[in-house]
Design goal:
Strand order of the largest sheet: 1-2-3-4-5
Strand content: 5-15%
CATH architecture of the largest domain: 3-Layer(aba) Sandwich
Radius of gyration: 26 Å
Order of helices and strands: HEEEHEHEHHHHH
Helix content: 40-55%
CATH class of the largest domain: Alpha Beta
Number of strands: 5
Distance between the termini: 44 Å
Length: 227
């Protein structure tokens, strides 16, 4: 599926950016339980978020939200010193920033990372705002959170709906596997309208039209809330 890249609005504050990074990199590295490291005011040893990557190990993420200031090498070196000094158990330090991409800084960080890796120390990586946007554009679940009007977000919601319908249909199929059909409504039913609607759902299920059956069931449930 081809996803059209979209521009993502910047987070409003540092706390929002940390939460954003936890969600994004949790998805990117397939970690369902990313950890935000403490709260504002607590000592964080250069790490805002921890994620576990299957092929890498524990990654520490430092979130740098800037408005007017740009990320510089001294900022990164300062965070590296904090993590080194406190012997933070990570395999990689990832600096995520709202600063625009900087080719010169990127090259400096790549060289620094290679030097550290040769010494057996954790490697360092930087992701600028354009990189973060690319991460979001690569996963429809992230587009659903940060660009809900995008095509990718629509695909994601449709997939979720189809998955729900499939699970609903399989569950019902298991329940009626040993019977020819679901029981029909009784003639003496107190609510003949609801009974007839349930009979209609029964007919839909027998012909494997699970989506329509689910929509009718949801509609009945909504109606019953007002009784």
């Amino acid at each position: 599926m081809h996803i059209v890249p979209i521009e993502i609005p910047l987070p409003k504050n540092e706390a929002d950016f940390e939460s954003m990074c936890a969600q994004i990199y949790g998805v990117v590295f397939a970690d369902p339980l990313p950890k935000i490291n403490g709260r504002k005011g607590q000592k964080q040893d250069g790490i805002d978020v921890f994620v576990n990557a299957r092929d890498i190990g524990r990654i520490g993420i430092q979130c740098k939200k800037y408005f007017r200031t740009k990320l510089k090498q001294e900022h990164i070196e300062e965070e590296i010193k904090k993590a080194d000094k406190n012997k933070v158990p990570i395999k990689r330090l990832l600096i995520a920033t709202t600063s625009p991409s900087d080719a010169i800084l990127l090259q400096e960080i790549l060289l620094l990372s290679d030097e550290r890796g040769a010494k057996g120390l954790f490697c360092v990586e930087v992701e600028f705002w354009e990189d973060i946007e690319n991460r979001i554009n690569s996963f429809t679940v992230l587009q659903d959170s940060y660009a809900p009007q995008s095509t990718g977000a629509a695909y994601y919601r449709q997939d979720q709906k189809l998955d729900r319908i499939l699970k609903y249909g399989l569950n019902l199929h298991d329940k009626i596997a040993d019977t020819e059909m679901l029981p029909v409504g009784r003639a003496e039913s107190a609510n003949k309208i609801i009974s007839s609607q349930l009979d209609h759902i029964n007919e839909l299920l027998k012909t494997y039209r699970y989506q329509l059956a689910l929509e009718h069931a949801d509609a009945i449930g909504t109606d019953l809330e007002y009784l």
